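task queued by scheduler; priority normal; single chain, no ligands, no partner chains; default sampling; output format set to structure tokens
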Amino acid sequence: MNRRHFLVFSFCIFPYAGEVFAVDYRKRNPLAWKASSINDAAMELYGREKFATIQKSTAIELIVPRGIVRDPENIPITIRSSLQAKTLAIFQDANPKSLVAVFDINEESVIEYELNIIMEFKGTVFAVLEGLDGKLYYTREYIEVLHLSCMGSGE
């Protein structure tokens, strides 16, 4: 194969390479994304047998804002862990749909994620790691959300 042909072929395939390795959890587990409770969403995502192994872990660090959050549409959370894991799922119990995000993790990956979430009301955020040993580990933090929509609008 000519070098020029190889480069053209590589550039044509490159946009599709990520789709080969990515897991679409919305298509694989559609009921998990529609579940309104954390238990239902986690059971749909992981299955009953694996969900029975869930245990609280201090090796997962979930950092949320302390005190009252004034912007419910921009709540920063950080998740760190030293555990080796297959997946990381984020759940919350304030919105109608419980599952927020699922990350597929390589065993060599560093688990440190920072993201912003939306919560309509005060509630609890759960981070669930599926370890390489097949067990589930979780931690949780409570977030207090303040709504000033009727007071600040002047209507």
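post-processing summary
- DSSP finds six helices and nine strands in the chain.
- The domain at 23-152 is CATH 2.60.40.2470 (Immunoglobulin-like).
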